[in-house]
Amino acid sequence: MMMKRWLLGIAAMLAAASRAFANDWGMGDANSKIPPSSIFSPVSTPASDINTLAFFTLAITGTIFLIVGSLIVYSVVRFRARSDDDGREPPQVYGSNPIEFAWTTVPAIIVFVLILITARTIYTVQAAPRPPGAINVRVIGHQWWWEFQYPDLGIVTANELHVPQSDPANPTPTFIVLESADVAHSFWVPRLAGKTDAIPNHRNTMWIDPHEVGTFLGQCAEFCGTEHAMMLLRVIVEPRGDFQRWAEAEKQAPVQDASVARGRAVFESTACVNCHAIRGTAANGTFGPDLTHLMSRETLGAGVAINTPEHLKIWVHDPAEMKPGALMPAMNLEPKDLDGLVAYLATLR
Amino acid sequence: MAGSIEHRIALSAESDHASLPILGRAHEWVVTVDHKRLGLMYIGGGLVFFLIAGLQAATMRLQLAIPNAGIIAPQVFNRLLTVHGTAMVFLVGMPILTGFLNYLVPLMIGARDLAFPRLNAFGFWLWLFGSLLLYFSYIGGDGLYGAGSAPDVGWFAYAPLTERAFSRGNSTDYWILSILLTSVGSTATAINLLTSIFCMRCEGMTLRKMPVLVWLAAVVSFLMCVVLPPLSAAQAMLLLDRFLGAHFFDTQAGGSAILWQHFFWIFGHPEVYVLVLPAFAFANEIIPVFSRKVIFGYSVMVAASCALAFISLGVWAHHMFSVGMAPAGNAFFAASTMLVSIPTGIKIFNWIGTMWGGKIRFRIPMMFSVGFLAQFLIAGLTGIMLAVAPFDWQLTDTYFVVAHFHYVLIGAIVFMIFAAIYYWFPKATGKMLGERLGKWHFWLFLIGFHMTFDTLHFAGLRGMPRRIYTYQPGRGLDTINLIASIGVIFQAAGILMFLINVIRSLRSGKPAGDDPWDAWTLEWSTSSPPPEYNFAELPVVRSRRPLWDLKHPEDPDWKYE
Asked: Which residue is closest to A96 within chain B, CA to CA?
């Protein structure tokens, strides 16, 4: 009887665990194509500067570790009591001023050097000059997604930041102003730069200067509530021409497709419009992501799922299924309306 | 009439001890003002919370063992991480360490009790009820006594996540009140220790002749008196925000989120030293005794500890390198933080100097102490990496930090707590703890600890932020996290060995005698366990190691000091 109850319990736990595996909405495949976000493989100037300093620090701390670690191991092995010990106490040494002086001054010198080098990197990264070709981006952290605005280009998008590749001869770094709409967040793409917080009532600046084309993963690094773990972002670094083309496309109003008029009507007549904006429609909410070019993004829900119409349907029906705790409510639409709405959203390229 | 029931229990305890032994004995513990009993109650209570908060940690590691796991819901995970962190600091670390100081300081200074025995009891009960409040939030937090509604804002409780707009219900209020109560209790203990140390030392014990542990107890108590009030002030301000519509930290009404961070870390950083200095203190007693040598560089050790406490008050903003301080601010706090490594290095060198040329006996307390030395070395070096502000922009809020501070909190502090338990258990109970089980405990815990926390350094370097309830596959994090989670099994097995050891020793342990380790400080001169009045006759000392003088009349310490 007892046995049976145990087995049932274990089975229930395994079921719960395996259900978890089913929740990988295609992101496993999408992510594994992107190399890990190691801080030691920088592709942008601030991250490279940090990387250089990090290796210098590692060299110093590594050397200290080897020396002091060997001293500990040596004294422990060398001075252990032997079995043939005569039982007499070893000589009592109360201290030594020259030795104390030596092991105070040597670390002090090391620390002094480290402080100077650290300060230099702080200033080179934080006080970097802004070249004329710089791109401006305003990043606003929301519970639990990212808003990206390009004030000079008139583009608003979410969770996926497109920036041009910057080449040393003709740099086009991206300067980022960080803000928050609610609680503290932190913007972090390890291969591009260190993290900078997005704090309400406060404006932070940082910059990236990616010299390699590709997609780089980042995520919110400051605990911001229920779905902190699923506040992911992608930075898509493109050759300058591709970036221009992307920017031109984003500036256009979305295509008006007569075949999805019903879905558009659903969107405009339900609560969707309170939170979301689609340019060229009545929807101008700012609480949720701008959906004008929704389908130009690879992911859904700040990176919880691959952006496909099927996933979109699950999301609109009940976001909690993909992202428990997400602030978007379940829309409770009639199946026909849901299909129409998703068909409409799927045209927003 | 509650009073009358207690009165009856008291009466029956006095008049009829035999018929109600358990109640009678319980009553003795409840009404006690004896520093030794209160010390043991702190330690015992802290160990119970250690088990609970440890199980919470194990649950989090279970969820993180595999990517995209759905074993527990996000909000449940966030509650676990909040309560685990808060409990380990306020309900485990502080009480166990101050419990030891409570127990040891009067014995080591040759006094009959602390200066204010009743204040001591008051502090304990305040602490206990504050602690229970934190766990009570699980049943009383979210309105209608709904189960599972503990605070979910992190132990650092950054504003404005803790404001009404983002933290509804009362779970955050339980967190605030719990911390307020436990820290008022701790402040009381600190005042008590300070007064006792400066006013109640036995004849002959000048400041320069106090054991290093007593010195560190004084430094810690001073630090507690300085840093706990800002924490309490911040909690009171947050309560005002939440209940009376003040706007200190409420950003929606123009408050400052960063102000909270300053308040919190001005407490939070020195708090690390409040926890680690007692661990140093234990090492300063245990390493010399088991190396059979006097501590190397007594005055430098004491001076380094004072310097550490002083510097720790000026480094708090190194927790805030990513909030966007000006370059000068970042450089200042990077520099002040790096200064910490100088006194810390001196201490490590002096411990090595103490072992050097000794005859080291590898009994369990010494094994834990050597583990502490090695792990604290690693913790210190990763600490230097974190002090390098630009490096910290990458490392902060990742698992590298989690690994770093668990090396401090477990690798150093918990290891020294175990060393201290194995070392002073014979004194407190009159029984030895078993060596064989102790070795199992040590090795299992050591292996598990490194499996879990060394690997997490690499998770952080690979871009894994902390405080996340899950991570996606394909990010190079799967193996690291699986190993880290398996390590928990070893740690748990080690703790189990420890519990079995304690229970077996209490029932049928080898009698310890008054001085089982052939040690040198005053607590070993009285019986095990010591009588309620500590010493039949108050001792008189001439040196830092009074029992050494007794045992070696031909070569006493006072000739050299």
From this structure: B297
Decide if B180 contacts B229 (C-beta within 8 A). Answer: no
d(CA B500, CA B508): 12
pLDDT in tens, B17-26: 455 678 888 8
Q: Determine contact: B122 vs chain A, CB below 8 A.
A: no
pLDDT > 70? residue B268:
yes
| Residue A185, burial from CB neighbour count under 10 angstroms (0-12, 13-18, 19+) | buried
State mean pLDDT over B481-509. Answer: 97
Complex prediction ipTM = 0.93
Residue B220 parent element (H or E): helix B212-244
Neighbouring CB atoms inside 10 A of B506's CB total 12
Residue count (chain A): 349
Q: List, as ranges, residues 383-422 from B with C-beta within 8 Å of A.
A: 384-385, 387-398
User: What residues pair up with B398 in beta bridges, in sequence order?
Assistant: B465
**Strand locations in chain A (E):** 135-142, 145-150, 155-158, 160-164, 174-180, 185-187, 196-198, 204-208, 214-219, 232-238, 299-300, 305-306
Of B12 and A95, the one with more pLDDT: A95
B324–A31 C-beta distance less than 8 A: no
A173 burial type by CB count under 10 A (0-12 exposed, 13-18 middle, 19+ buried): buried
**Residue B407 near residue B446 (C-beta atoms within 8 A):** no
Verify whether the Cβ–Cβ distance A79 to B327 is below 8 Å: no
Q: Which of residues 179-198 of A touch B (CB under 8 A)?
A: 182-184, 186, 188, 190, 193-197
Degrees to nearest 5, angle at CA B160 with B158 and B166: 115
User: Residue B530 gets which letter from DSSP?
Assistant: P
Asked if B66's CB is within 8 angstroms of A93's CB, the reply is no
- On the question of pLDDT at B10 being above 70, the answer is no
B24-33, B291-300, B317-326: least confident range:
B24-33
Show which of residues 264-303 on chain B sit within 8 Å of chain A, judged by CB atoms: 291-294, 296-300
pLDDT of residue B2: 43
Residue ranges of E strands in B121-219: none
